[in-house]
Write a structure and sequence with these properties.
single chain; alpha+beta; Helicase, Ruva Protein, domain 3; Chitinase A, domain 3; 4-stranded antiparallel beta sheet
Length: about 270
């Protein structure tokens, strides 16, 4: 009798645990559950739950459900026991672990100082000539015409207090805009039209744009160090990474015992 009650108690605990698990799941396929924690691992690091597009999130969950269903069916047909698939999995795992280690090693060894960046810039200024006329501009966007119109009025005024207040309380982008690399309406106004400081509101399918040109640069002028700093950093890091990779390989070849049997290899080549 006592054993009977213990079995019933065990089944009840198991049942409620399963119910709780299903209740906490965003989605599930039989005994496989997609929890928030798992979903966060699926979503790329560049995106965050709570700020991503709803359609994008729904597509991720739908894909997970479909893949789980297909995987379970594949297992029922014993595809998980296929030797070729196991070989591919082992190979992928080995390559993934290797690549992660190499990336870690190179990242820890690759450090480009500010002096090196500036030295490269000074010695290679001709590489950073502007191919086209360029402007440094502030870009304001709003879906409301009246707000966009007021933004232009404030930016066009000489009232520094109002301008500073606008810049403090409104979102905007500061970017270098190159002639030939912007939409037609912007091109016609900023580069082909009158040489003004403030343009807008410019109407597009998305809303209203106001652009304030802070500075103009002629074709052939040299870009500032601040404009190309990241570009130089990537270029130098790439060169350094290759050197670090070769250094790593050389050091590990001296650390581990290894050999390629040329005779056996040539025999195999002769049989192919």
């Amino acid at each position: 009798m006592k054993n009977k009650y213990l079995i019933i108690l065990f089944l009840l605990i198991l049942f409620f645990n399963c119910e709780d698990k299903k209740g906490d799941s965003i989605a599930y396929v039989e005994d496989s559950h997609l929890t928030r924690k798992k979903l966060q691992k699926i979503v790329p690091e560049s995106k965050k739950i709570g700020s991503i597009d709803e359609n994008y999130l729904n597509s991720i969950v739908s894909d997970w459900v479909q893949n789980e269903i297909l995987f379970k069916e594949a297992k029922k047909n014993h595809f998980d026991e296929d030797k070729t698939i196991k070989y591919k999995v082992d190979k992928y795992f080995k390559n993934l672990v290797t690549q992660e280690y190499v990336n870690y090693y190179i990242h820890s060894k690759t450090k480009i100082s500010e002096d090196k960046l500036r030295k490269y810039y000074r010695n290679n200024k001709n590489l950073f000539k502007r191919n086209n006329e360029t402007v440094l501009a502030k870009h304001f966007f709003n879906e409301n015409y009246e707000i966009a119109k007021n933004t232009k009025l404030v930016l066009s005024s000489r009232n520094e207090k109002k301008i500073n207040n606008l810049l403090k309380n409104h979102e905007y982008d500061v970017q270098y805009v190159e002639s030939g690399n912007c939409i037609k309406k912007f091109q016609e106004l900023i580069f082909n039209g009158q040489n003004k400081q403030v343009y807008g509101p410019i109407v597009t399918d998305f809303g209203y744009h106001v652009i304030k040109v802070d500075k103009r640069y002629n074709k052939g002028s040299i870009k500032k160090f601040s404009e190309v700093r990241d570009e130089i950093g990537k270029k130098l890091a790439q060169k350094s990474s290759h050197k670090q990779y070769l250094h790593l390989l050389d050091s590990l070849k001296n650390k581990y015992y290894w050999k390629i049997n040329k005779n056996k290899l040539n025999r195999i080549l002769g049989e192919l």
